[in-house]
Amino acid sequence: MSLKQPLQADSRADVFTRDPRLAPSSAAKTLPETQKQRVRRLAAHCQKYRGSVPRLAIQQLLTTIVPLVLIIGVMFATVEHAYWATLLLAVPAAGLLVRAFIIQHDCGHGSFFASRPLNDFVGRAMSVLTLAPYGLWRREHAQHHATSGNLDRRGAGDINTMTVNEYMKLSKLRKLHYKLYRHPLFLFGLGVPAYFVIIQRLPWFHALPPRDAWKSVLALNVGLVALYAPLCYFFGVANVLWVGLPVLHIAAATGGWLFFIQHQFEETTWDTAEGWDFQVAALLGSSYYDLPKVLNWFTGNIGLHHIHHLNSMIPNYRLFACLDASPELKSINRMTLRESLRCTRLKLWDEDQRRLIGFDELPATA
Q1: Which of 31, 83, 130, 277 is deepest in the core (most CB within 10 A)?
Q2: Which own/partner pairs from 87-92 qualify as long-range (CB within 8 Å, at least 24 positions apart)?
Q3: pLDDT, tens digit, 9 for 90 and up, residues 89-132
Q4: Helices 210-235 and 237-263, packing angle to 10 deg
Q5: What pLDDT is recorded for position 21?
Q6: What is the distance between the alpha carbons of residues 316 and 52, in angstroms, rounded to a whole number?
Q7: Residue pLDDT, tens place only, 22-57
Q8: Dist CA 304 CA 261 (whole Å)
Q9: How far apart (Å, rounded) are the C-alpha atoms in residues 2 and 288?
């Protein structure tokens, strides 16, 4: 898959003028427009769509929570006598849980509602379902937005990504460790689900120091006990696990995949701090995941990630309005579902070619 032609490996004096994704539009031929100026113009376009629409926010909240509660209820009704039905229902339940996470995500950005107290209340309520501590996740995710695409500030909410030079300097054991970490079966089958179920219960292993994380973690853990203790009392611990774990695992794996594909595509953008620009990294370092409508609904339109990173104050229910009003945004970093599957082979950032590459592209001695 190629979303653009590789950048020329010449001077970095103006990286913005060398990226075909931002070549001046035909409308700008009479007055030459630098590619950096074009990023600013697209950012100004996105600015028009920031701000909440209460009617749409409430509608999305209801169409997420009501069916989720109903499906979970049916799952408990079938868990002892028709577990095959329970497992089938786990799929739409997981999709709704991903949608609930996007609501929490928007609340963390302060975009879902106009009121910050209301955003915080709804975001914390969603966190009891998603298992992600609201306050901790909100601060870590803000760091992710502030540093995305910056090679010198990796580690805040990122999929760990090494450069070719960094990987080549590793010992054989460390290389094996990195290969295992980047394998899709580990990332989405074990790593991300374990992160949500286990790591998020602890104040360690986060981008924030434990002293800044423990209050949020502890508050959510108390909330989880308040929710799940009565369920365990009425339905039994085993039934709660048989119902909850498949939903959590599918939702976590799906969310992990979405986060992966949003930034881990061949011609994403990474730069050292010296050449890094927030808006350029936001637009060119994030994908437009062109999914079928039903998947856009379940994933809260988060596939329009280049717009989201360009302006995180646009709530998910306004992202398509922003996209539809700009043909330029429809052509930048677009990936279909089929194309995205090829991204699993990408492992390392090649600073010379300025693209992500697979292990198979390294010298045979690596």
Answers
A1: 130
A2: 87/246, 90/243, 90/246, 90/247, 90/250, 91/250, 92/67
A3: 999 999 999 999 999 999 999 999 999 999 999 999 999 999 99
A4: 140
A5: 61
A6: 10
A7: 655 544 455 677 778 889 999 999 999 999 999 999
A8: 11
A9: 14
